[in-house]
């Protein structure tokens, strides 16, 4: 597939309800290009986690994989840097083809500087909060953010289990953001069973991994999830 210009379903600083973002972490890692092509027929964004095995317990792909996947999808690439010193990698990730770059607040001693650096590279900027991190900084950062990513699970030995208190955390984030046009992303154990509760509290984008591949029927799973979100 030749390289094509990425579609932008959200638009800079203009969040829309019920976007589904497919996490490639749950796909067959030996066939990521084919997975990106299949997912692109059904979802709104492609979500790629870059994890270093240090800040995050997992060790995943690097910027070169983002680069090699770019010709396989016209969808926006949302790249989440779960790394120590994410600033060191921003130019490379931007050049590789990311459209949205999200960094963890816990890895950024100067988050405002990091957000502005992302935007200076021509990319939309997001900030992620791990489950245990207070959200009190949001009112001071909201005017600079395009999106906020709330982790709704923590890694464990059996996979990332959804934390039942996540809707209340989304509601808190929405309150702290006020009128700022910031998309609220939820990521971790999201699926048909909990998406509606998250949407009701203000989540606008749903990063979905294992649920998409359940039973090997991506199209049906996305359709079921969209029905839940629309209802």
Written overview of the protein:
It is a single chain. The chain has 231 residues and is of the alpha/beta class. The protein is built from eight helices and ten strands. The strands form two sheets. An eight-stranded parallel barrel has the order 1-2-3-4-5-6-9-10. A two-stranded antiparallel ribbon has the order 7-8. α2 runs parallel beside α3. It is globular. The N terminus is likely disordered.
Briefly note the structural class of the backbone: alpha/beta
Order of helices and strands: EHEHEHEHEHEEEHEHEH
Q: How many alpha or pi helices?
A: 8
Can you give the mean pLDDT? Answer: 90
SSE layout and pairing:
Elements: E1 19-23, H1 32-39, E2 45-51, H2 63-69, E3 77-82, H3 90-96, E4 100-104, H4 111-120, E5 124-129, H5 138-141, E6 147-151, E7 153-154, E8 161-162, H6 166-177, E9 183-187, H7 195-200, E10 205-208, H8 218-230
Parallel strand pairs: 1-2, 1-10, 2-3, 3-4, 4-5, 5-6, 6-9, 9-10
Antiparallel strand pairs: 7-8
